Amino acid sequence: VNLLRILRVWIAIAMIFALAAWSVRHWVRIRRAVDWSLARPNELARDAERFAHLAEHLPPHGPVGYLNEYSGFRPDPEDLRDPQLLQKLERARDRLVVASYVLAPHVVLADREARWTITSVPPGAAVPFREAAAFALRVDAGDGIALYEHVERR
Amino acid sequence: MTTVLGFALAVAIGWVVVRACAADAPLPLLLRAVCAAGVGCGATSLAFLGWLQLERVPAPSPWPLDFALAAALAIVALVVRVALRRASTPAPALPERARTAAWQLELLLALALVALVAGCAFGFALLSRLEPLHGSDSQVIWNFKARFLFRGGAHWLDFLHPALAASHPDYPLLLPASVARIWAYAGEETEVASLGWAAFFTFGTVGALGAAIAALRGRAAGCLAAMAVLVGPQHISVGASQMADAPVAFFLVAATAVLVCGARTAAGRPGVAGPGVAGPGAAAAGPGHLVLAGALLGCAAWTKNEALPCAGALVLARILIARRSGWRAALRAQVPLQLGMAPALLALAWFKLRLAPTNDLVEGVLSAATLERIVAWERYATILSAFADCALTPRPIGMLFLLGYLLLLGRARDPRDRDAARMLGLALAVVLAGIFALYVVTPRGLAWHLSTSLGRIVQQIWPCAVLLVFLVARDPAAAWPRS
């Protein structure tokens, strides 16, 4: 009976040991995959640097408008089946999140009603302003990220 | 250096509170240490936020504020300590376990635990480096708000702007205030602030649970319990991503550990009827322990919305277990616990009633469509299926593994811990029922809501489930052959 109890204890311990080994192996596997995993966060980190550069030209607080190539875009359910579009939408959303994070305590609003507006569009794409004359480019941080000032709201 | 001072003062302030609360019956040293850091984090975050509210600008360096808080708490602690010593018969400390015949087993498990902690620390560091902006929750919610508190000056409340609804402006502020406070010490937004707290909560959970089980069931069981938490679903990834689920899990398990250890020391106190006492059971924990557990539960509620119902479930379970001695006595026994919770709950009430917008989930639940969701029976099947998946899927450890451990070791049948185990089991059942009900009425897409939140919510109560299983299971060293 005693032997059976010891056997049961060892099985229980072995079970947790196996899980512990699985857990450590999991971290080692992630470490091996690090090169490709680093690609996306680096991209976001570069975006963060660009937004931080724009922040230096803003007043200490207050709202900041934000426009990207999908501002006002209302996709059909059919459109959302396109994986390429989904990927682009996700990338645009990530950039907005990073902009909000980096620019805090400025409140980033998804419109262009404030004096300052940031555009975040793919390089070469049209800036989404209809009456572009009202907006003056103040800083171009590169990669489609720029800061505009509404000349009549100074 | 000033960053270290910020952390050290928080721990020192927590230590003053823990020393006073554990005056009537000592707790294991490791449990006291992690509780001190947790309570210190909560107390200093409240003080920092109070300062912001009064002065409307961040303190250039909050150390005078922290020293004043430490001095005030030390005076209160001295009074409480004297009062507790006069009011109650001193209880013996939890017995230091002598070297048992199974010391080889304990040594083996201790070495395995050290190796696993090292492996998980490596994983934690790896994930922290992989996500320089630290995952969506910390970036969208916690560190985001910390930036308003630190950089915002007179405009620090701008994080409540309706346009920032995605950052859940109604969420409590323990984490943002703790991070912003350390930044104020450092004079810059050092990553050490959020990483330091995240590492503490991730590994402090393991320390609190391991120390409690080692004291109650033996060192071998303590090592195994700590390992079971470390390999638990998402424990390291949630911690390294700086999500608030890690501190909530810490505060809940630390509070439960204090209650359970308190009940055991009280059972050994002269004048208490002893094992199987027909008194208020887990409520028999000394008043100091109850105040400390209450403070930890209050900190949990001050961290994240979901923690408040969890704390409520624990209080409800205590009342139900203690009702054998009469409802009035059972309710009276909760007073020290409520006293401990009071500072954090008052701050939470001020924040929710004066500043924060209504929670979007609550707003959605109060609509007429809720009735339709309640009678949509297919929702129940979907939720049950998700629950089963969570319990049975080894990611890497599911509830099945814990039940397997319990079956293999057998029940301890220690009458001193019976009421504490019942209380914890009941509280977990209430929490699970509450989570189930929440998913039934959620106004959000059910599949989306389940897939994005259930795993993290389970992570919050997972250490408490491990505590329950190891509290009920036999000490593995007890089955060892005697030399």
What class do helices, strands and sheet pairing of chain B give? mainly alpha
| Number of separate helices of chain A | 4
| Helix-strand topology string of chain A | HHHEHEEEE
Q: How many β strands of chain A by DSSP?
A: 5
Order of helices and strands of chain B: HHHHHHHHHHHHHHHHHHHH
Arithmetic mean of pLDDT of chain B: 83
Give the uncertain stretches of chain B in residue-range form: 270-283
Proportion in β-strands of chain B:
under 5%
Regarding quaternary structure, how should these chains be classified? Answer: heterodimer
Percent helix range of chain B: over 70%
Which structural class matches the secondary elements of chain A?
A: alpha/beta
Structure description:
The complex is a heterodimer of chains A (154) and B (483). Chain A is 47% helix and 18% strand. Chain A is α/β, with parallel strands linked by helices. The relative contact order of chain A is 0.15. By secondary structure, chain B is mainly alpha-helical. In chain B, 72% of the residues lie in helices and 0% in strands. Chain B has helices spanning 2-21, 29-55, 63-87, 103-130, 135-151, 174-186, 191-217, 219-230, 235-240, 245-267, 287-301, 307-322, 327-332, 335-355, 360-365, 369-374, 377-392, 399-409, 418-441, 446-472. In chain B, helix 7 packs parallel to helix 10 and helix 11 runs antiparallel to helix 12 (307-322). Chain B is globular, with a radius of gyration of 22 Å. Residues 270-283 of chain B have low confidence and may be disordered. Classes of the chains: A alpha/beta (154), B mainly alpha (483).
